[in-house]
Amino acid sequence: MAPPIPDDKDSLWLAERAAEGDRGAVESLLERYMPDLRAFVRLRTGAALREHESASDLVQSTCREILARPDRFRFPSETAFRSWLLTTAQRKIADHADHYAAQKRANVREERIARESGADDEHLLACYQRFSSPSHRAVVRDEIDHIERAFDSLSAEQREVVTLAHIAGLSRGEIAEQLGKTENAVRIILHRALARVAEIVKGDHAT
Fold first, then answer.
1. For residue 3, how far is the Cα from the chain centroid?
2. Measured between alpha carbons, how far is 20 from 14 in angstroms, rounded to an integer?
3. In the chain, which segments carry CATH 1.10.10.10?
4. CATH 1.10.1740.10: does it fit domain 10-115?
5. Considering the chain, what is the average pLDDT of its residues?
6. HSE on the CB side for 18, CA within 13 Å?
7. Over 24-47, what HEC string results?
8. What is the secondary structure of 76-129 as a DSSP string?
């Protein structure tokens, strides 16, 4: 019989149990990272794919894949689990984007809108607030729409750097290594991207 999960659900303990194939530990880590996963998927999906795919469906599909093969997680650290989770999500997003690009028809558009609860919106906005300050005048859903529209206007490189820094939680050095850039270049890209988001969100509020 597996030992009970400690009351505080210690992160290292959960990661160690997950690396041993404990489905309960994997589920606990998934629950812990659900707000980050949801924010990551919505931001990395982009406006074009959001016309076809619900972010909620992509999140659920990612979770199903993780839970179906918990044996693929072999590194007992919380950071490694989050990396595995977001990498799985990114691969799924890329696969779906390729699928819709291949079957695109000029006169056919499918609209899929995720039905999110108010509580989920609060968690989503909390993730977005890591890189964009909210306006007290805006309701939660409006603020989410403003930030996502601003994020979609960034270059692919800027979007990747922002999500790696503020959703995946990577250091500037880790991002630089992953992208093959210097830390200073990463800082510049991030600074310009956040300034652009802030400018667009502020402009939306002014209109």
1. 32
2. 10
3. 119-207
4. yes
5. 81
6. 31
7. HHHHHHHHHHHHHHHHHHHHHHHH
8. -SHHHHHHHHHHHHHHHHHHHHHHHHHT-BTTB---------HHHHHHHHHHHT
Architecture of domain 119-207: Orthogonal Bundle (1.10)
Cα distances (angstroms) measured from residue 144 to each of 86, 95, 112, 129, 147: 21, 25, 17, 10, 5
Phi, psi for 105 (deg, rounded to 5): -120, 145
Whole-angstrom distance, CA of residue 144 vs CA of residue 121: 8
Burial of residue 39, with CB atoms counted within 10 A of its CB: 0-12 exposed, 13-18 middle, 19 or more buried: buried
What pLDDT does 180 receive? 95
pLDDT tens digit sequence for 118-145:
557 777 778 887 887 655 445 677 888 8
Please state whether 129 falls in left (phi above 0), alpha (psi between -120 and 50) or beta.
alpha
Greatest C-alpha distance within the chain:
61
Q: What is the pLDDT of residues 160-181, one digit of tens each?
A: 999 999 999 899 999 999 999 9
CA 153, distance to chain mean position in Å, is 17
Rounded distance between C-alpha atoms, residue 20 and residue 33, angstroms:
19
Q: How many other CB atoms are there within 10 angstroms of residue 199's CB atom?
A: 12
In the chain, where does the domain assigned CATH 1.10.1740.10 lie? 10-115
List the structure tokens of 104.
């695109």
